[in-house]
Structure prediction request, 636 residues.
Amino acid sequence: MNYYKVENLEQYFKMYNKSVREPRKFWERIADENFTWYQRWDKVLEYDMSKAEIQWFVNGKLNITKNCIDRHLNKRGDKTAIIFEPNDPKEKAQHITYNELHQRVCKMANVLREQGVKKGDRVCIYLPMIPELAVSLLACARIGAIHSVVFAGFSATALNSRIVDCDAKFVITADGSYRGNKSIDLKGIVDEALEKAPMVQTVLVAKRTNTDVPMKEGRDKWLQPLLDSASSNNVAEIMDSENPLFILYTSGSTGKPKGMVHTTGGYMVYTAYTFKNVFRYEENDIYWCTADIGWITGHSYIVYGPLLNGATTVMFEGIPNYPDFGRFWEIVEKHKITQFYTAPTAIRSLAKESTEWVEKHDLSSLKVIGSVGEPINEEAWHWYNNHIGQKRCPITDTWWQTETGGVMIAPLPFVTPTKPTYATFPLPGVQAVLMDEKRNEIEDNQVVGSLCIKFPWPGIARTIWGDHQRYIDTYFSAFPGKYFTGDGALRDEVGYYRITGRVDDVVIVSGHNLGTAPIEDAINEHPAVAESAIVGFPHDIKGNALYGFITLKETGLTRDQNNLRNEINQHISTHIGPIAKLDKIQFVAGLPKTRSGKIMRRILRKIAEGDFSNFGDTSTLLNPEIVDLIKDDRIE
Ligand code: WTA
Prediction:
């Protein structure tokens, strides 16, 4: 049996059981057979969940870029590693071979060393989706520097706090970036962020928009001339399995963003293994994940996972609706994409438009399509299945988190039968459990519980940068001995998991646990509804009641609003039950969303409660102006 690849359902069960019975042996075999180590580990795993101390492949020595690049050069030197698809379809795509990637990463690594970057230093990367971004991550990893990528849509304040938190002395950025028909003054944002970040010594600036930007003497340097004169020979740093590879910030429900720390050995093994299985990757496939490398999805499944497998991975600089709503499908056709991986929010926004945008393009190259980042509602699932997968390509609905490093629960294409809105089975090595309020494991099905993982897996984050106590408190305290995901889920009779949303999104109405996501699903199926968000608010008799914020497909509503409210409630009644009916329905122009497309329910909850005193940190909102509009029309 090939441990690295699950072939059928029977094998899945075998591997899963093996991974639970003998987790060390299971992961050891995968780590042994598929990677290059300078020195083998002494012990596969050492852990203490109560202290949140986890080590994988203890004392193993490696460099992840040797595994991502160098070891492919013999067989795949001329194979394309990265396809860069620019924002403007008129600009030519770039095909970067493994040989070229090797050269570029080595040069960049040498530039960083010349600039004084040492093993363990933090390098903040604030770049658009251009090849320099992937090259920068890999160059840091090559010399043992810890990269901290900040999504280049974040504001100066958000960038500043992330630089200060990890004390980054180096920043890599660009003059500007393109986004649809706009260009953004990236360097200006960096300058503003650095006004209060005195630790930063050096800013390396890539050219993208060729705009004139001020360069601060002694601090700012153009990257290209440095690369031009750098050598392409570079000896990779020897890293310990548990040396940090990167920090990536994720927002918590309270307080400042958490700098999740991922280490080298376990992350490598986990992302490589999951990429291969979750996307059923085969040699010569062309894989495209539409995420930005600024998020964990991009780290694990644009850069590391694909390159570790010697794959061809697409980096797309643009947005789904530029120059028109057919852009994604045009790219699929152009590069003959075999695996396509995107977020439900993108699916929903494209599903609103005419299917002509899809039908114009030949999608016959597709084999597997994926979804990530939030629960995919039933309507979006079917649209994706019918129009993009054309009922031919399995949808892999992948549940995971920044903290988990890689996919945890997902159907394995052509192995696990799919079921709309279900992420299905945990991957081998993932010991998922559901917990009730009394902290007991739930054995029953169809009950919402808190999703926990009761045994370490190689990809788990090791700490929060600079605050291990917060790491323990956030993830290892609610259910002692277990990692708490913060998500709710239910399990069906065959053992499939359905993620119902953050546990704080579960509302108990008259003693009944109601997940808000399934109610939203039901509402979204109403023909007039575009999108909805349900939150709970305190109610004298029921304990909690439900408040719905709903956007309509047709703006400038001509229909009687009360009629529509009744219809929606009727719809919920028939889909879920009268218990799930909404007490209040407010039609809104838009929902407050983070830049990664997540609805910020915290704010909606406050509005529903009528508490306007403190909305917390709204700096990550894409559309902050919507908050006041919603507030003003709140239903008493
Ligand atoms: C949610 C993104 C339902 C979940 C990789 C999780 C999902 C949070 C899914 C992590 C999915 C992610 N179905 N919910 N397939 N994938 N989530 O850290 O609430 O940006 O806890 O990682 O997104 O978001 P993050």
Residues 250, 295-297, 371-375, 397-402, 423, 485-487, 499, 502 surround WTA (CB under 6 Å). The chain has a mean pLDDT of 93.
